[in-house]
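HOLO CASE FILE
Compound: adenosine-5'-diphosphate
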Amino acid sequence: MAEPLLEVEDLTVSFRTDDGAVQAVRGVNLSVQAGEVLAVVGESGSGKSVTAMSLLQLLPPTAEITGRVSWQGEDLLSVPPERIREVRGGEIAMIFQDPLTALNPVYRVGDQIVEMVLAHEKVGRAEARKRAIEMLDLVGIPQPDRRVDQYTHEFSGGMRQRAMIAMALACDPKLIIADEPTTALDVTVQAQVLEVLADLAHRMGTAVVLITHDLGVVAGMADQVSVMYAGRIVESGSVDQVFDATGHPYTSGLLASLPRLDGDVDAPLLPIPGQPPSMLAPPPGCAFNPRCRWASEEAGCFTVLPPTAERSPGHRSACHRADELMAAGLLDRLAGAATADVGDRGAM
Ligand SMILES: Nc1ncnc2c1ncn2[C@@H]1O[C@H](COP(=O)(O)OP(=O)(O)O)[C@@H](O)[C@H]1O
Ligand SMILES: [Mg+2]
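Model generated. C-alpha cells follow.
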C-alpha cells in the first residue's frame, strides 16, 4: 500500500486539571490514505475532537501530547507555528459542528472564501472571487453569484454548513477534517450536506476524516471506520468489515442502537446501557468492561488491557474475547449482543 497521507501513531493527550489528569486520548493509531474517507465514530466524550485538534496544534497549553502525527512524512507535533499555519487551511482544512465559530457574521460569506483563497494561493482578488462563486455553486448553493455577497445570517443552517465546505475546499486541501459537521442540522439536511461533502471529496481526490457519534451516517459515505471508546480505537477496518464482521462488543452495541436498515421500522432501538467512564479514572483492563455483557474474569477483561489484534487483513479490534464471540456470531448486528444488561453477563 502507498505511504499514508496522514498517520497518527500512539497519540496520547492528557489535560492537567484541578481534579487531576484527564486522559482524553490514550494511544490512538489512525491512518488515512490519499482520497479516502475515514470515519471516526464514538459516543460523546470518547476523545474524537481532542484527537482532531491535536493534529493541528489547536489544543490549549494544559494539554500534554505524546506520540507521532506524520503528515506526508512530516511530524506535525513538532513543526513550528508558522508551518502549522501553512498546513491549516491550505493542506488540511477543518470543518466544525458550528459554522458560526468559523464564519464571521460581519463579513460577507464570499469575502471569507476570497480571503481564504488569497491567504494560501498566488491569485488576484478577481480570480479568487470567481473561485468563491464556483465553490458555492459546487456545494449546491442556488444563485451563487448573488449569495456570494450575502452575510451568514442570510443563510439557513444547511447553507452555512455548505458554505463551510466551500471554504474548506476553496484551497484544494489534500485532507478535510470534519468534526460532527452536521450534528446541528435536521436529519434530511444532514444527509444532503454529507452527500455534498463525500461527492466533492471523491471528485477532487480529497481525503476526509469524518468525525461523528452516529454510526448510521458512516455506511453511506466512508471507506474506512475507526471506532473510538474512552480515548482508544477499539475497532478499525473497512465499512464492510466493521458492519458485517463486527469485532468488538462496543461496535456491536452502536450497531444495535441504529434504526434498522432491513426495513423493520418497529424493531426497538436498543441503546447501550450505562455511561462512558470518567477519563480522570478510566477502569482498569478493558475500559468498556462495566457496560459489556461479555466481560469475564477468566479472559482478563477486568485487569488486562486488551491488545489490538488483526481479525482479518486490515480489520483490527481490541477485545479479549473477540475471536470467540465473532465465531459464535454473537457480535452480529441482529444478535443485539451488547444490548442485554450486564446482569446476563457471560451467558453464551
Ligand atoms: N480543555 C480540556 N480540559 C480538560 N478536559 C478536556 C478538555 N477538552 C476535552 N476534555 C475532555 O477530554 C475528553 C474527550 O473529549 P472530546 O475529544 O471533546 O470528546 P468527543 O469529541 O469524542 O465528544 C472528555 O472527557 C472531555 O471532557
Ligand atoms: Mg467532539
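CASE NOTES: The chain has a mean pLDDT of 90. The chain is about 30% helix and 20% strand.
CLOSED: yes
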